[in-house]
Amino acid sequence: MAEGDGLISVDYEVFGKVQGVFFRKHTQAQGKKLGVVGWVQNTDYGTVQGQIQGPVFKVRQLQEWLQKKGSPKSHIEKVDFRNEKKINQLEHNDFCIVK
């Protein structure tokens, strides 16, 4: 396996206008499109949080999407990524929206 091909897990929180703009739905769709797994949910204080797992290159693509694109009507102020770690196997089967 080449450098950078391993699996990683990273937690994220997105700040800005990210609730009420279909951010979770678009994040789920983008995650599935890229072939990563994890989850996304609204918080009680107006942010969106979740976890991404998959090959490093694909996780980095979703991280960039979360920082620069998001859903069409969202306005992203910042994204915090935390707890990045290498994993041996995926802990999720799909990319789901947590209610």
UniProtKB/TrEMBL annotation:
Enzyme category, top tier: hydrolase
Domain of life of the organism encoding this protein: Eukaryota
Where does the Acylphosphatase-like domain start and stop, copy by copy?
9-99
> What positions constitute the catalytic site?
24, 42
Which reaction(s) does the protein catalyse, per the Swiss-Prot or TrEMBL entry? an acyl phosphate + H2O = a carboxylate + phosphate + H(+)
Where in this chain does the entry annotate a coiled-coil region?
none
Q: Which UniProt keywords apply?
A: Hydrolase
A molecular function (GO) held by this record is:
acylphosphatase activity
Among Pfam families, the record links this protein to:
Acylphosphatase (PF00708)
The EC number of this protein is 3.6.1.7
Which Gene3D superfamilies does this entry report, sorted A to Z?
3.30.70.100
- Similarity-based family: Belongs to the acylphosphatase family.
Name of protein = Acylphosphatase
User: What gene is this protein translated from?
Assistant: ACYP1
